[in-house]
Specification:
alpha+beta, 33% strand
Amino acid sequence: MSGITRKRKSRTSCAIIRVMTVIIGAVVSCALGCSSPPLMLERAEIVLSDIPVERIELGHQWRDVQYFPSGGPVIFDLPKEPDTNILRLGIFTESAQETSRPLSFAVELDDKIIAENTYKTPGSWQDFRIELDASAAETNPSCRISFNSEQPFYLGPIELIKEKDSSVPNVMIFLIDALRRDHLACYGYEKPTTNFIDAFAMDSVLMENLLAQSCWTKPSVCSLFSSKYPPYHGAQTSFDMFSSTDPTLADALNKAGYETFSFISNPHLLPIWNICAEFDRTIDIGSLMSIVELDDKDVIDSVISSLESVQDKSWFFYVHTMSPHWPYAPAKKYPGIDADMLPDGIACDINGRIDKMEKTPTNGWNANVVNGSPSWICTTQDPLVGDNKLMTTESGENTDNLLFLSSKPFAVKGGDLVTFSGYISTYGSPDNCLTMGLQAYSAGQWTAIPSRAWALASNAWQLVEGSNVIPAGSTEAQLCFFVPQPQVENSGWFADNLEATVYHLDDPSTGESVSRQLVLNRYDHEIAYVDEQFGRLMEVLKAKDLYDNTLIILMSDHGEEFWDHGGTRHASTLYEELLQLPCIVKLPNQQNAGASQGGLVETLDIAPTILDYLNIPVEPAFQGSSFLKTLVKGQAPEKEYSASMFKMGEKDMAAIRSNYHKFIDDYAENKEMFFDLISDPQEKTPTLEPNVIWGQMKNKLAEIMAPASSGLHIYIEFDKETKEYLTGVLRYEDIGKMDIRASGYPVEFEQSQNEVKFNIKRENVSQGPSSEQAFIKDPKNQNHTGIFIVAPPTLQIELELKRNTEIIPQEQVFAGEKLQNIGIDGVKLDLSELTSASPDVKAKITPGKFGVYIWHNPPIVPVIAENVDAETQDALRALGYL
């Protein structure tokens, strides 16, 4: 992939640099090989700012670069500023031709060559750091760099800088994808999964209750970067773009002089979504690889190698690792994690003859073996290791049926536990998929056992591991592969390294819990592996004397479900197992080391806290709040609630929780759930009857969600401590009843096919403060009412609104993003003319002064799947998002 939609300012425009292209390249080539300075003959002078600075991907890195297409000798003169005694230079060329000589360059001060070097890594970036001698730094001569290249090349950066102020702290966010908080020993887990993280926690402040803003990576990480809830930053579904106008943590640190790097290994964070686009460098370490082949060791190696590039600047590193993410394929096993739960197993011979099975629409998974030739054949196509099997369909098959392929049966008895594993892959049509599972033979028929696994990724191997308890009365079992029909030409499925083991349990009733624990063991081994890599990085920071002066935050983006509420993995619900995150904050010089702090903190609070610690102004658009006082002084967080959202496919829900209660509003299912977290922390038994707190939390959630929601917004700000009686009528074309939501001070609705009437009787005005805490206790403490109506931008409306029986004057009505005054005495309005580009119009409202604000938020337009390159689509399929 190359190019992104998000543009950033040039970072080379701080100084005017003259570029001189030498007409006689041979003279320079000779000069670079001699002790005397290059002979300057004819040259064309160009101001470097005239050469476009582009943000593109080269060598799996996104940088701001300048391109030199000539491939000929080029000379830069860099005027030196006082104390700028370090030259930083990044070079990239495409893979060199066999006849090409490598790019070389020389650095001169006062017409004296002080350094010569050769670019040795065609196809990847090579960064150079050259120190200028102290005497030259005092006299401030010009610095000249002479390049000799036979092919085009890119530069980024090229700059002269001062030595770093060693007192300015560095910043690192180390994020472990899909890490449950309750699987870290420092949070009370009984297994030794996190020896290195536990040691790190002793140097840090352990936050006990960090909550994610969503249950999967893209919206959660975007909330981390932007300090906004998902509806405000826009990146909620697989193909949504992150808002290119939202300021981020990296933007704020860039302004403060930090060098910002992101190290990503998840395709949801690629800059094609506008995510990580604001970093000086985004380095992709295998986000488009098969997740089975992805190794967090490579991520840490990239981080360590990049430390040299930033040794002269304060830096911010965002590091994203993937090890605990499904499909739980640990690179190695660790002692103390696998409990002695199973007797010796019996390995099954499953790689013999493969029988073809077919299914008709009436008999489900029950099918009879069809006599004939084996449906698997050995092949030379070997993306993995060893011989793999190629499954194909024979020509002339009935394409209305669904095809089954099954392994050689093996003996079992009811109550046995069978574990199985293997690698499966598809090729050909992107619509191919393959399901792998077990079926058992009993009473003359084969029956599938639930909890099958599946693969969708074309040309990418996917590890499948599972276990099932054999139903009573069964005598045989076999691996089976379910393939949908119809098939397309030149498509098929691969399987490799298939294994199955039978365990005869002493107590068959324990089979289900043992099966679950086997999955948890694999997950825990993955955690132990990334823990080991984290420890390796911390040791390097200590060896380089960087550890003490670095603010380091270890956290996750979401949790993981293991049948807690009947499901697995993530991106499915908003229960606590997916939202509770670890958060371990090491302040510079290990300030307040070993402390633990309770109270609610949200992911979107991380960015304001970092900026607060560094005394950098917090972006006004941030919705989070700093918890720095909690970290350094031990004060309890002031936050009274945390909110989370999830929207994907047909699912659409939001949740809000306090320290004691939780409310989930499932918009897609039209279902509400309320939990008492003190008596029911696992959220197993929702309260059946609505109560006062239920209603208050629902109101608060609506207030958070509504301003960013796509549709018509009518927001009424009241004068402080003034009784009001407002009546309104909204008329529109007959499109049926519309979805209406309200927040703030209570409002009554009456709706018909083409009309909505609403009344607000503000009679009991509270004298208490209008704070978040007060709001949770009593909505009537609020000084506003928000009305949100789901309506398309093409809709035309008539709005009439009266205040104490009088039409509200035009000067008190503000419409659209520019808040233009309009009349609302029944005049017709096109919603398209009320559109706001920013979802947070509410931030422009004057508190405590009466006014009516009307705007329309347009729907978010996601990227069309067909416009995303095939490699990225494959990576998203492998993670289960397509």
